[in-house]
Structure formats: structure tokens, C-alpha cells
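Incident review: delayed structure delivery

Summary: a single-chain prediction request sat in the queue longer than the usual turnaround. Root cause was a stuck worker, restarted by the on-call engineer. No data loss occurred. The affected request and its eventual output are reproduced below so the record is complete for anyone auditing the incident later.

Affected input:
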Amino acid sequence: MPEQVIKCSYSELEQIHKLQPNPKNPNKHPERQIDLLSKIIDYQGQRSPIVVSKRSGFIVKGHGRLEAIKKLGWESCAVDYQDYETEAQEFADLIADNKIAELANHDDSAMIDLIKEYQIEDFELLGLDDFKIEIEPPKNTGAELDLNAFDNFDHQCPKCSFEWNDDTTT
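Output delivered after worker restart:
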């Protein structure tokens, strides 16, 4: 059996075959999304439980996670059972979970800076599909630096005596 790593709070570890997707879930998960999510869960462990309604017994949040966990061959997963007062409240939570993230603005530049800072090479572990970063090699002008040129300075600060040249290549 594949190693199951649970790294989240949950109500119960539940057998996969007992979980029922919500038949009214309008969100569809393409195979590529499930492939990426499987890779992330395999790397990170399960960091979010699948949310199941105590009222209906259906999954409210985590349909994609369930498919990814099945793909990994797990027999059970972390589940958080929650109370919903009405079917409308349950449905509203299901829709909000699917849609609220779409309203976020993503700062690609900040993300790229962090990717470089943390030296992340496998972008799929970030949920990025077909992503590449062009890293420019240091520029080599081909000219060698003449250190003797720094011995003769053209200017000197009258207050602190700091010396400098306008053209450091001569």
C-alpha cells in the first residue's frame, strides 16, 4: 500500500470507497489537474481534509483531492465532517469553495522571486502547468578589468577625500 501522509486536522480517517461525491457539484476536474494534485499530495502529504456534510453525506469540498488521493492508491484519507443547517447552505459552501479562489489576483513577479529564493525546480509541485522561467546568465563583456586604472583618480571629494574616476575603464 502506498504511504499515506496526513498533515492536517480532521474528524476521521475515512475509507475512500465510503466517500460520496456531490452529484450537484458543477466543478469538473480535468485529468491534468488531478495529475498535478496527485503529485503535490504525494510530495506534501494531505494538507487539507475532504469536507463531508453530516446532513447529506456528500462531499462539499475536496472532490479533486479525492480523485488525486485515489490516483495515489490510498485506501483512506482525512475527512472533516461538518454540520449544515440546510441543503442551500451546503450548496452555497460547495460553490463558494469552487469560486472564491478565482477572485484572487496573482502577482507572477513576486511568485518568480520566491521560486528563485527557494530554488524550486519542479514547478508542478506549485500547481504550475507548462511553466518556465528564463534565467539570464551573467553578462560577460569579454573585457578584462585593468586594476591599475584604479590607482590614478581624476576627482577627490573636498570634505571626505573620497577619490573617483568618471571613466573607470581607462
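Verification: The beta strands are 12-15, 50-53, 59-61, 76-82, 155-156, 163-164.
Action items: add queue-age alerting; document worker restart procedure.
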